Amino acid sequence: MTALFSLAWSSLLNRKGSVILTILAVALSVALFLGVEKARSGAREGFENTISGTDLIVGAPTGTVNLLLYSVFRMGSTTAEVSWPTYRQIAERPDVAWTVPIALGDSHRGFRVMGTTTAYFDHYKYGGGQPLELAEGALFDDLFDAVIGADVARDLGYTLDTPLILTHGLGAADLGSGHENRPFRVSGILKPTGTPVDRTVHVSLEAITAIHVGWETGAKNPLADSIPTEMIRSFDLTPKTVTAIFVGLERKGTILTTRRQINTNRGEPLMAIIPGEALRELWGVTSIAERALLAVSGFVIAVGLVSILTSILTSLNERRREMSILRATGARPGHIFSLLVLESGLIGFMGALIGIVIVHSVFAVVAPMLQARYGVAFGSGGPGLLDLYVLGAVTFASLVIGAVPAIAAMRRSLADGLSVRL
Amino acid sequence: MADPVIDIEGLRFAWKSGPQVLDIEAFRVDAGERVFLRGPSGSGKSTLLGLIAGVLQPQAGRIRVLGEDMSTLAAARRDRLRADRMGVIFQMFNLVPYLSVTGNVLLPLRFSQARRKAAGNDPQAEARRLLARLGLQDESLLERRVSDLSVGQQQRVAAARALIGSPSLVIADEPTSALDADARDRFINLLSEEVERSGATLLFVSHDASLAGLFTRAADLTTMNRAGAPA
């Protein structure tokens, strides 16, 4: 077999040009397939690593997925809020261990601003239970303190005590809709987490109320800026509403009961979701597209394999002479068969290997860009079992496909005998 | 006297649904002989060589080669016999294009353990020795692409390949038809010498009757073959 292996190798080297093109076709098809699969599983892993330890998320009635995307991933927007008294009711339920209210809607130079309480930093967990940690500085203490995520600090070059101005809504700061007269200062910078937390500016709920004094109608009252900040500090800054509430329960066993009771709340309508369940619902929505993509890229692999077949079949005519030389020097039909199957297998193996290398190189470059854009870290990028499976499957399939030209060559060499009539 | 190397009796062969190509009553080659078999193109000589080498099987008659009955031997055994004990030289395009000169010479050793054993501990050296014996001493030639060699050089590489591992029977099918007269005679002499040295038997087929004198015996396929040449 080793004798045939080196023969197959030399034969491929001799046809470098077309063989490299075929290998490339296989490599690209494998890269596409693995790319789709890795993007899929990477995104899932990234999303699933973003929140843990929170049993329920409560908000105004909207779509399950929408509430999750908005409250945890800072994607999309919500139309309704939860009133403060209702929040207090939930916080005081006997089956609730802790609550973290959040208020969203403002931004700072493209990064979302989230009003919350310091309890957020105690209870929010990511990546299977890791807590948020400060890289430097402290949690907010003063009304106009802000704790910024690692990406915010890095991208904007902020350090402790850097002043920052929030913007109403998600627009740019220079449209006159800013909270120019209420500057904040960076009091703490969080360690990177690979979650949307890195791209969030955290301030206290009271601060959110404070900068919206004079905004009660939804737009800025021209007189709003005339209220001195010192006066605002003396106001009752208890928020009127919050966007959503993260809830931790006393006992996990009550999660379904608690959710039902919140969902059927008399008075203000509410919706409670279980983060893991909402994610599964999200995957349910995306899985149709995912499956279609996987199927298409699977077919592309099939096309890559067919290109191996084509390249070997077309070479057979000009290799007729070679086959009868091999036969004359003692090669049995089985040798001819194995030679061609090996060539096919080698092309498939190298193609798959190069495809895997391509995918990992591309992901090494693209994953940080995706994280910068969406705040979600892609799952572990290193070569895994899947790559091994694909390598094995593609190699095996190309060996099997190689049987087609191999049988043709074997038959022909038997019929040709020792002399080919050229 | 040992078994004849080739012993043919009442041999008949036709390609699928074609006319009779070969009908030979008797043909025999003894061990150590260097036989010249004359046959013009179309006389069925390549077919006869295919039968002797065991890649074809006759429809009728008996053909014994190296003591084995090729007409009844299973295909795998015929392949084994050829791999182990025969060397073949073609008219032209003898060499595998993607192997070096020595790679081509060593090719039979890939397929036969017996030949590997017979070639000794250092097959590379044996290949170089054979090539040198056949007039290819130049070391720089050995790793060259075979397509860069002249036709005469290619045929000598093919001869070295047919001889490596001391096969009992060397079959040559018009190996000199592409060579000029000088190169042709030199090639035949070198081949004969090496065949003799290794104690092999040579069956040399050509249309060129003037070569007959260079061999120990001559035969004519056109008189031997009752099927005659197709028109």
Main attributes?
heterodimer, A: 422 residues, alpha+beta, 13 helices, B: 231 residues, alpha/beta, Rossmann fold, five-stranded parallel beta sheet, four-stranded antiparallel beta sheet, 37% helix
Task: For the record, give the distance between the C-alpha atoms at the N and C termini of chain A, rounded to a whole number.
Answer: 30 Å
CATH topology type of chain B: Rossmann fold
Largest interface: A-B, 24 and 32 residues
Instruction: Work out the strand percent of chain A.
Output: 15-25%
| Main sheet overview of chain A | 11 strands, mixed
Unreliable stretches of chain A (pLDDT < 50, length at least 5) are none
Number of helices of chain A: 13
Distance between the termini of chain B: 41 Å
CATH architecture verdict of chain B:
3-Layer(aba) Sandwich
Account of the protein in words:
The complex is a heterodimer of chains A (422) and B (231). Chain A contains 13 helices and 15 strands. Chain A has helices at 2-14, 16-48, 64-73, 84-91, 119-123, 150-156, 205-211, 229-234, 255-263, 275-316, 320-328, 333-374, 385-416, and strands at 56-59, 82-83, 96-108, 111-116, 125-126, 130-131, 134-137, 145-148, 163-164, 167-168, 184-190, 200-204, 241-242, 244-249, 271-273. Chain B is an alpha/beta fold and 231 residues long. Chain B has a single domain (6-219), classed as P-loop containing nucleotide triphosphate hydrolases (Rossmann fold, 3-Layer(aba) Sandwich), CATH 3.40.50.300. Chain B has helices spanning 45-53, 75-85, 101-105, 107-111, 113-118, 123-133, 139-142, 151-163, 181-198, 221-224; strands spanning 6-14, 20-29, 34-38, 60-65, 68-69, 86-89, 169-173, 201-206, 217-220. In chain B, the strands form two sheets. In chain B, strands 6-7-8-3-9 form a five-stranded parallel beta sheet, with helices on both faces. The longest helix of chain B is centred in the C-terminal third of the chain and has 18 residues, at 181-198. Classes of the chains: A alpha+beta (422), B alpha/beta (231). Chains A and B meet through helix 1 and helix 11 of A and helix 1, helix 2 and helix 4 of B.
